[in-house]
Amino acid sequence: EHLVKVGTQSHNAGWVRGCWGKAALKKIENEPVLCSGTTLGTKKGVMRYLDVMLKEMEQKRKELRGCRSAKGIDQGYHNYLQ
To answer: CA 18, 73, 47 angle in degrees (round to 5)?
Structure first.
């Protein structure tokens, strides 16, 4: 089984580093990349997930850090919050 790791996949590593910094990337660099397009759960669980994602996105927007990407960044949040 071959799993792509957050730290070795350039887009995901860049999103995490750009939004949360090098220390955050180091903390999750060996975790497998999770695809944000395949999130499953109960209605309650998915609603909780979306609430957490939106709160984190709003916080990053307020901080005005380099937490943006022309290719989307939802997967960066998804992997950081795993």
So the answer is: 120
How far from chain centre, in Å, is Cα 13?
A: 9
Residue type, position 60, single letter: K
C-alpha dihedral sign at 50, 55, 61, 67: negative
Q: What one-letter code names the amino acid at 4?
A: V
Distance of CA 53 to the CA centre of its chain: 9
Task: List, for residues 33-73, the tens digit of each pLDDT value.
Answer: 998 888 889 999 999 999 999 998 888 888 766 677 767 78
The structure's pTM equals: 0.82
User: 45: how many CB neighbours lie within 10 A of its CB?
Assistant: 11
**16, 22, 25, 27: CA torsion to nearest 10:** -150
E strands, the chain, are none
